[in-house]
Amino acid sequence: QVQLTESGGGLVKSGGSLRLSCTVSGRTSSTSLMRWFRASPPQQREFVASITWNGNAYIRDSVKDRFSVSVDDDKNMVFLQMNSLKPEDTGYYYCNADEFWGLGTEVTVSP
Predict the structure, then answer these.
(1) What does the DSSP assignment read for the chain?
(2) How far apart are CA 82 and CA 15, in angstroms?
(3) Most buried among 46, 57, 60, 91, by the most CB within 10 A?
(4) DSSP state string for 60-92
């Protein structure tokens, strides 16, 4: 059974940085492509970044100059490095693989 567990969220001031982690257990072919989404109600969940375990990454245009995504294949972990954070980055960040989702980690960026 695939399980995804996010961590690393928190409260940070505008301009600060956070590194989110996603621990992946039960890796299968379904977890070959890992993705990060975020949601800030009432907005719908939106795609942030994706990466394969061999490092092929894609980041949405609106954050690609501030965010980066990486993996540690040995530790079964996926990371989202977020720099120069803005209040509009506030929300819950979710790790996703196929139909599997983590519970999310909350990011709050204060002005």
Answers:
(1) --EEEEE--EEEETT--EEEEEEEES--GGGSEEEEEEE-TTSPPEEEEEEETT--EEE-TTTTTTEEEEEETTTTEEEEEE-S--GGG-EEEEEEETTEE---EEEEEE-
(2) 10
(3) 91
(4) -TTTTTTEEEEEETTTTEEEEEE-S--GGG-EE
Closest CA to 27 of 81, 98, 104: 98
Amino acid sitting at position 41? P
Kind of pairing between the strands at 105-110 and 10-13: parallel
Query: Other CB atoms closer than 10 Å to residue 19's CB: what's the count?
Result: 14
Q: How far apart are CA 98 and CA 43, in angstroms?
A: 22
